[in-house]
Queue: 4 jobs
Job 1
Amino acid sequence: MIVDIHTHILPEKFPAYAQRFGYGGFVSMDHHCAGCARMMVDNTFFREVEANSWDPSVRIAQCDHYGVHKQVLSTVPVLFYYWAKAKDNLEIARFLNDHIADVVRRYPARFEGLGTVPLQDPELAIAELERFSSLGLRGVEIGSHVNDWNLDAPELFPFFEACARLNMAVFVHPWDMMAKEKMKKYWLPWLVGMPAESSLALCSLIFGGVLERLPSLRVAIAHGGGSFPFTMGRIQHGFEVRPDLVAVDNPYPPKSYLGKFWVDSLVHDPVALQYLVDLFGANRVAIGSDYPFPLGELEPGKLVASMPWDVQTKKWVQSGAALEWLGIPVNP
């Protein structure tokens, strides 16, 4: 069985939010030809997408072709809208969550779902989390930061408490990349900023004591944890030599949290993937493809299938780690 925890889905059409709310910055879909559309932010082109972005039957056919048994669906990070007015974002989040829940309801054997929340207002976010937890969604996708808050912000802790209380998995995806004003060429926000954002999120959760205070919280980080795994030595060393600057909110070393969170397998390199399994354990690395976007794995699960692992290791990465993160019983 192969379970892909990192896939994105869009509604085929969006309401005219700019007209409804009286300000812009929202995504719309320009279906300019059959089976393809332009994602537009106001009048600015953002991304070309195909029918596999919104049509479950196309997704299922492609999953069958690649041997993927189940996808975990989440929204596209550009739709987080943490910058918008919170009540407006709540309306959008409800629309997106109802769409994902409907797809899961219609195809329960093929899809699980993650919701999105207006995290700029934690009280509204918790209310929406509670609402869609009753719709069959398994968890929530959040950004690597929320405007000026990193994930250790005290304002966000009640939200993480609610995730733990409701047994909801948390998937952290980079967005609104840091220092993007210095990375205007070479697609650097996606190549450099995204890995840094994932490490920012994970360091914030560790050093801020979120994982320590909520040991039952199940968190997965996109893109193999970004740059975090490959700078783990530096992070641990910094904790040891400058505890006065690093260990100010949590006295426990970052290495003690290895194996207490999940990462996906999306690193595009067998040496890097082997390192993730060695560092975190096979039961904490789950297949993630970033389907259906080009920076993802073009053949979901291909890299994992190619690894020279024993049967049990491969089963953990192909499905066991994902099911455990989702809160679904795993057959040992």
Job 2
Amino acid sequence: MKTLVTKSPWIAALFAAGIIAYLLYLENTCLQVTRYEIRCHRLPRAFDGFRIVLISDLHGNTFGRGQCRLVDAIRDFEPDMIAIAGDFIDERQFTLAPALSLLQGIQGVAPICYVLGNHEAASGKFDTIQAQVEDFGVNVLRNRTVSITRGDDTIKAIGLDDPLAFDPALGRRKRQLQEELARVTYDKPGAFTVLAAHRPELIDIYAAYNVDLALCGHAHGGLIRPPGVGGLVAPGQGLLPRYTAGLYDVGNTTMVVGRGLGNSAAFQVRVFNRPELVLITLRSTE
């Protein structure tokens, strides 16, 4: 009897640890699909119902064999555009294979636009990455624009490099980012603009150049999201970050921030913050 009583606290502790480990496993591997319908006052009527998939921060994570859970969710949505907002790989472990598996599964579903995150910029291997993703028909938008046309109407899709890809001189990166954004938004200034850029904390810059819709990641949902509190910490924003997940309006710009699909090698735990695939439907107010 004494032995049973002595062991009981250890059994309870092991059971509790097992439950916690299982819940953390679910939090870090169970895909959540989030849908937004966004009303855009400058969106041409021909683009009413335009569907965008936002993929961010895969970091080499996998969702079933051949990324089947991600692929099925994307294909079922029947998107008109797929935006990859950076950190498709993790530079510390250089995990490109899961990203290529996803591209293989969604090749031909819709035009794919891909921008650099800080991990691509820091990897020193972006030429290799670009060559391989372009084999799947991906548009790598390094500070450039592509036009999307429906009937007589056109919108612009812009890709902006992560600041780590710019001049590292003190204070130069932010200025160069602004210069590049000014350059790529100069043509057709009245066109509805969708910007894919990695960092949500730069929303004031995006808004200053009249971007209509910004698609971002990087914050990983704030890593730990206590109910009713939101994210606790995010790269580039520190403690109690402002931009971690969901919709934000600054001026005439609406920003969508995805919580991301994976974790960087530096921090591998999500709490109340499942991996997220974002599906967006645009609605015209005209």
Job 3
Amino acid sequence: MYKCNEITDKLAKAIDYALKRVDERTVGLLERARAEETNRRAIWALDQILENDRIAAESDCYPCQDTGIAMLFVTLGSEATFDGDLAAALEEGVRRGYAEARKSIADPLTRVNTRDNTPAVVYHDVVKGDKLGVSFLAKGAGSENMGGVRMLTPSKGRQGIIDAVVGVVGEAGANPCPPVLLGVGVGGTMDKACVLSKRALLRPCGQAHSDPSVAALEADILSAVNALGIGVQGLGGNHTALACAVETCPTHIGSLPVAVTIQCHSVRHAEIIF
């Protein structure tokens, strides 16, 4: 049986830690981009980003003032039991994890702030056994506002998927603080594709899909996006995006949904296994 107070405590500590440190794999991608970049202005911007991330980690402060909306992806065993309310325990974990961070969550109509960064956006996957795991993603508004969904017809095919992603990123321009990471969901329904695009960002940054055909699509999307020349902070160069992760799902024979979630380079996430 899982103890809800322990779930709250572990989640809160993981969130607080994650918010103050850019994912180390993303830092590695930024360093590689710095080594490969030839545009002087982009090199200067990458140096500033890397210095910012170093200072944040060393001084235990936030690398970006937008600490985002908390997204929780919960893997829940069908046989798991709890000594209380799991949903309440997760919300309290978010509340405590954001105790020192900026409070960014507000009613969509009145714009009144909830003052504790709750509620979180929570998705559940029910699996066999008694496992409990939570993946946390901090999703800032600057990049989130630049995402998009394209409801394609099947005839658009593979190239249509690539063109859709390039179109979304091209329209976003410098707004999501490039270099970015791209989460792409293909298939399902409109809403399913959006969730897939978020889940794609949980994969270790820069890790290719296990299916070679999907991995090849990821590589082609990344190449096409970087050919746009938007570059780091919109200053030009070859690194508009650092990586692209695609997740797919069977879809209706008459549909080809493509969702694009853009994540800025300030990637903050954590995986908690209880």
Job 4
Amino acid sequence: MTDDALGRIAAALERMSPAPRAAPDFAAAQAFVWHVDPDRLSPVQRVNRIDLALLHGIDRARDTLLQNTRQFAQGLPANNALLWGARGMGKSSLVKAVHAVVAAEAPGLKIVEVQREDLPSIGRLLALLRGAQARFVLFCDDLSFSHDDEHYKSLKAVLDGGIEGRPENVVFYATSNRRHLMPRDMIENERSSAINPSEAVEEKVSLSDRFGLWLGFHACSQDEYLAMVRGYCTAFGIRIDDDTLRAEAIEWQATRGARSGRVAWQFVVDLAGRKGVPLPA
């Protein structure tokens, strides 16, 4: 084979699996997004998040995640965390809000968002972060896996760390609507069709067991929903009497067929627009 042919093969292989770029200036931002093809960490100057004080009805999860994150920022032992449960109850908002609070206390704490489809590249990201002076919360929102999805195997590199171990300056937070990250029918199918049902299910279900913290989020009560609405109105200066607010907020959630923090925020956006009150972008 000629040198020219070998050169073309080498170039093609490099394009298929590009080497990570140099680490960015982690002092330039508190938040980054991981991209692949080519591998890079893009700084985010303005994070889309709300104040921690505006998150109502999730006090236990808030306090637990806040304490765990503070421990991690101080270089103390801390667990990976799985925030699971009802849609729209503030799982991802809590992660971002907690990071903001702790990063204000410890500026060396960064958050890096990783998309689920990019999990196969997680080993390269860990190599980039290992040895950096900063500490990193890796954040994967809406994490779940389908029956033919092998991405969950890549996640073990973060949770278990393989032979090198997880970098001591990295912790992993994920949100999911599913406690075991897999749909129930997938688990049942594995159980019914495998030669050894318990072993077939164990490999997939045990993935969530690798998270040291399980924080459950459940549908809120009407009182909690109304407290969320009133909290937003107070924070953003929306003037409305309690009786009118209660009636309109209940009517809004009835048309949506659900109560949640997301529904409360959507009502407040509508109310603010009608009242001519601007909301933060």
